[in-house]
Design goal:
By secondary structure, this protein is mainly α.
Length: about 120
């Protein structure tokens, strides 16, 4: 499986089209994603630690939106699962939650960076 298998290429290609075929918009959004996501992950971990299902749902929803906007499909799915967990009133996300979030985040970053590199090299 390639890094881009983690991505919703339709979403990303739509962003490129919005930028008249350029990658500036995707790169700007990637920069924001890179800056915001660690805080969102920490919010999720804090909510789980406090056993606050409502806070978990809110934090996961925010993460889901950011990941979805950039086409980080696998990361968005994890966030959606966590949001649903919180909405169900639970915070039982497993002892490996931090590792799963970090792995999904790093995988999304690598895939998005690869998408930009490959796209720019074809221009």
């Amino acid at each position: 499986m390639t890094a881009q298998d983690q991505l919703d290429l339709t979403t990303l290609n739509n962003l490129v089209e919005l930028d008249d075929g350029g990658f500036g918009l995707v790169k700007e959004m990637l920069s924001i994603f890179r800056e915001d996501t660690p805080h969102r992950i920490q919010d999720i971990l804090s909510a789980v630690g406090l056993k606050d299902a409502d806070a978990l749902a809110r934090a996961a929803h925010a993460l889901k939106g950011g990941a979805g906007t950039l086409g980080a499909r696998d990361f968005r799915i994890l966030a959606a699962d966590l949001e649903a967990l919180g909405r169900s009133g639970s915070t039982e996300a497993g002892s490996d939650l931090r590792q799963r979030l970090e792995a999904a985040y790093q995988g999304a970053l690598a895939a998005l960076e690869e998408f930009v590199r490959e796209g720019e090299s074809q221009k």
